[in-house]
């Protein structure tokens, strides 16, 4: 049997659940997030993971990790290619758990800011209340009671020391260096901006590599690392032409610098930007940065007797880590029954020519000819290819802004916030103060203030009573 006025169980349970969640957030979660120890632990964890991302090569192929991090013997006894790929150490900065660490650290900073820093600033604003009782000065570490004193004498002294002064009747409050109390809040805000920038970059940025022969046009395709929302950043309405690639060599034959002249083309093929880049001087266009990172030999152009200029690609040879060589095979007969191998090690224009038995038979320079197998082989050009590393990171402006604001906040935090109270009564003159840092300097200021007060002529008790 039921009655019409019975209370349903479901709304009561929902209300109790809501109250429980409120209690948990207020009493458990928020104090935990505001705990300085948690923030330090998260910061150390982020630093450790970032170091691992610097030490372990990011975005490499499976074969690379299998070669450099074999299962036997495992590096440090546990670090193998399987561990790296399973945990995501090959793309640390885009893993869900690294982003979770950043978000949790950001939540801790935000909670600490609103739970501790801002309330502390409000508390300091409340201390602008004037002290009206002599006993209030006894609680200060730096205070003094003078038989005679005057606010009229004290005010010029404090103004000379750049204090901001508030006066009400016979009560005075002065402070300077309030920016030192705002500094920690600015530091927290700067770190939050930096974290947001890092997260934005991880979610929307990408890395790509392109090896492009001189004279060719390309669009960014070979992307090896990208965030889940990076598709919008990959350019589709413009391409890049490698107008020229060349290398400057030192007198002893080593590479001094390599250069690429690049033209950015719009959808109609018209150039909209034109720059020559080299190492440490990239090209930046619409948030995408192209770095000069590598080089290679793409092809060789040649003629056989009086034939038109022909072109064959050159491939990089496996030298077992003993240098870089590129080679190709040039047929010297129409039926491909005979030919020579040509090998180049740089773009200085020298080719080594080998017969089918592997014997060196000639050395020829770019623009010159040699006789091989009864055929005149003329080398017209060795075509180089530029290796470009391409990066887009929309979070970089936020990261730079965060670091700039962080430096400003740190400087602000070193400013001392000093406060002085004074009370003038018929019984005497009371003065006291405190500071949050540079205690010795503040003590010297107080001693100087007291010395000046003692040197000035004082009002009598009868004069104070009249006032």
Q: What is the topology?
A:
Elements: H1 9-33, H2 36-55, H3 62-68, H4 81-87, H5 96-126, H6 135-138, E1 142-146, H7 151-160, E2 164-168, E3 171-176, H8 179-204, E4 206-213, E5 217-218, E6 223-226, E7 239-249, E8 255-265, E9 271-278, E10 283-285, E11 288-304, E12 310-313, E13 315-316, E14 326-331, E15 339-344, E16 350-354, E17 360-365, E18 369-372, E19 375-392, H9 396-413, E20 418-424, E21 429-435, H10 439-455, H11 461-466
Antiparallel strand pairs: 1-21, 2-3, 3-20, 4-6, 4-19, 5-7, 7-8, 8-9, 10-11, 11-12, 11-19, 13-14, 14-15, 15-16, 16-17, 18-19, 20-21
Helix pairs in contact: 1-5, 2-5, 5-8, 8-9
Task: Summarize the model shown.
With 467 residues, the protein is α+β, with helices and mostly antiparallel strands.
Key features of this structure:
11 helices, five-stranded antiparallel beta sheet, seven-stranded antiparallel beta sheet, single chain, disordered C terminus, TATA-Binding Protein, 467 residues
Describe the structure.
By secondary structure, this protein is an alpha+beta fold. Among the domains are: 13-108, no CATH class; 127-177 and 416-466, 2-Layer Sandwich (TATA-Binding Protein); 297-384, no CATH class. The chain contains eleven helices and 21 strands. Strands 4, 6, 10, 11, 12, 18 and 19 form a seven-stranded antiparallel β-sheet that branches. It has a five-stranded antiparallel β-sheet with strand order 1-21-20-3-2, with helices on one face. Strand 7 (239-249) and strand 8 form a beta hairpin. Helix 1 (9-33) crosses helix 5 (96-126) and helix 5 runs antiparallel to helix 8 (179-204). It starts with 8 loop residues before the first helix and ends with a helix. Mean pLDDT is 85; it is low at 457-467.
